[in-house]
Amino acid sequence: MSGILVIAEHDAGTFAGTASELLGKATELAAVLGAPVTAAVLGDAPAASLGGFGATKVYQATGDFSSGAAVADALTAIIKAADPDIVLAPATFTSRDSFPRLAARFDAGMASDAMDLRIESGNLVARRPVYAGSIESDTTVLSRPAFATVRGNSFPKVENNGSSAEVEQVSFEATTPSTTVVETLAPESKGIDLGTADKVVAGGRSLKSAENFDSLIRTLGEAMGAGVGASRAATDAGYAPHNEQIGQTGQTVSPNLYIAVGISGAIQHLAGMRSSKVIVAINKDPDAPIFEHTSYGIVADLFEVVPELTKAIQA
Amino acid sequence: MKIGVCAKVAADPNARIKVASDGTSIVTDGVKMKLADYDEYAIEEGIRTKTAVGGEVVLFTIGTDKNTEKLMRGGALALGVDKGVLIQEEPADSLAVAKLLAAGAKKEACDVVFTGKSSTDEQSFQVGIMLAELLGWAHVSQVVELAFDGDSFTATRAMDAGVRQKVTGKLPAVITCEDGLNTVRYAKLPDIMKAKKKPLDKVSAGDLGVDVGSAKTQVGNMAPPPPRPAGKIIEGDAATAAQELVRLLRDEAKVL
User: Fold this and answer.
1) Are residues B12 and B104 in the same domain?
2) Distance from CA of A107 to the nearest CA of B (A)
């Protein structure tokens, strides 16, 4: 048993940024272990190109992966073929829905939603948020294989150097009891995916109405090319749809830039965005807890500042 | 239908959490504990399912704290759960938890098991799906809508980016519950008094015939996130401040 296997996710054949992030980090960790890096691809995607991110070999399986059961079965076959010490995946619904099955199947341990990874005494150690992100902890995974899912944007993307990896096609048996997808419902509002957005603008209850939210927050978001989010208070008040809620009971985001407009910064909201690289707040209240987390802040009326901000960006 | 519901005892999410001196756990003295938030949806869904299709609801909880029984009786047992099973162990990790729950669910011959999608403390999102694997059952995770038709079900699951999917399946299955699935009811004092008479079995891993094996993960080095260096407050009128912010984001922070 040796090496690190990275699950490379893709959208209709285009690899997600996380593929590069995880293969880059895996290469660093594998050097400590003195072991190879391999990758797994489910479905139709240019598997060989993952060689350019550091994969020495890629295992590929094809089939209907609409249910977590098939994902688990395919990855089981790939793990048996690759025989890795460590299996990494981006923290997405797909891995959340399949990795616990794999961990139980291999009588193994799993660390979820890691923000950082390292090797200590030959074991994978994942640093991860607990208690709504108010505490961070190290989870050491003692089993072989060791499973971990990693939040997007945790590691830098590496450049593809153009090398090609050997690809092995793996067949698998569908043994896990499955469900059947009968309908896929698009979200209430379709904008830039918050989970992978590079920049996010979020509005709070101070926007006072859905009309204000649209004319101020969405307009700013569009000018910036940012995903649009909202606090729970704002979605509960109907200013933005539920799927845009950021926080403990909503989405967790980790963009390079997070602009919180009229959001006080309660623990439940912080839980969803505190690991953003640069946090900016626009709030009338100088004592709002959000300012304890900001790199830049403007203490002023958002109704005056936001239109000026949109103008300044468009300039 | 024999309906299993699983609830973890966890610190109230609004409590101020402090790390214990050994860095491997939190200080629980004086911290309000409750049945974890997403597990409350599981309990509620178990009770609604019993109301809709008939059957019996069994609550599984794990722990050795003397207050756990009170939480079970004050909450789930008071609301319409028929029986409690308290597994008196301190499992080291998610897989051990799942092994204990699987044995409990098998012993009680459950047809369906509801759990929260995750617990509010560890936030691992693992136990429910590990449980399905150990039982050899199907699962649907992060469910926001559910209906049964005999031993078939239709469930809507909330995935990434606001996408939802309707799936159909057959029992037995594990359903992990997401915010929005139902509205949790809370017990009134008369119900809590009546709950004192409901059966609550206290069992050990040995009683269930489970050997959880060695720990697969280990937690340590718990600490609050490192504080951020103090940020800049940008002065000036709206236009000036806005322009300065854009300049700083572009040239200094380089995120725009």
Assistant:
1) yes
2) 8
